[in-house]
Amino acid sequence: MNIRDTFTLWGPTSLAVLLAASLASPAFAQSADEQTENPVQEQSEEPTQKQAQEISIDAVDSAAQVADQDELPRGHFRLPEKGDVIGERYTVVVEDPKQTLIDIARRHNIGYEEMRMANPDVSLWVPGAGTEVVIPAQYILPPAPREGVVINLSELRLYYYPADKPGIVETYPVSVGREEFATPVGITRTTVKVKDPAWAPPSSMRREAAERGEPAPSVVPPGPQNPLGEHAILLAMPSYLIHGTNRPDGVGMRVSRGCIRMYPEDIKSLYERLPSGTQVNLMDAPFKAGFAADGTLFVQSFPQLEENVEGFEPLLNALERVTALTTDRDVEIDADQIQRAVEAPDGQFIALYGPQAPEPEPEPVELIDELKLSAATDPDKDA
Questions:
Q1: Active-site positions?
Q2: What is the pTM of this model?
Q3: CA-CA 20 to 30 A from 37: which of 54, 298, 321, 355?
């Protein structure tokens, strides 16, 4: 795994925001995110700003209703007494013909890619009333110490283990850096939290905008045009933040310039509760494995990040992970199933062993051998 050294240095961005915050003036958080990028630019039917605002209100209200039903706030799960699996996979039926798959994803705390992979045959923009939609809200906890914040880059998901609630884990979809601006891996920590940050586009972005004939402003004040949203949490890693966004439709994709983006309602909740100095583990684990409470061994595979492919053997890593989990158990695992999961990384749960695993197919009977055996024991021929 491509794990870099622990990051403890302050960069120019972090110092600028810290100084601005200490002077009680607007924080100039020079995010690595691009103001003009369109997270759904490949789609031709992008919702208007007015529609996006209506979607946002509807999604937040619906999320609150779902949270009330589960008796836990949005994104919160009880840690299992045994095993590594939280949540459940379920389905919903589209009732409003105007709803998009992205609307439904946000309501259920799911990111763009997660929803797309779970529903490959459903239209992203017009799923249609009466369509059954899979909500992949079941997760294998990442293979990392259960402390602080853990962000699994390939999975596009953040996990938070609050120190004041030892029996709880929170998880939220995130966006990370696209390939040319890859989010680094390593151990860092949170530093300063800034409400209503201003944003200073980096010089490289301003140059690119000028070349297109679209000069970018030196500073974007707080407001609906600010790509940082209303909340930003600085990391002790130069120029990297965890923040909100004014383009929530892109959460759960690789679209940023390296920062971690969250739905506005999720970063608001985390901002209010996450202590400064909390450890943040940025890791890349495209293959996960873990036992459910009933003893079923599940695996889950995600597309490998291109920048971390060098020197990484996906199948070997998967086999080692499963072997480590089953060393002390009398468990027989079909290596072909693991290979299929690695070669088709779609985030789906695959049961390898246990009560929820499918029965193994019987080995095919060799009819020729049966005929030979029958001929060899024919009583008439012996006579």
A1: 243, 259
A2: 0.78
A3: 54
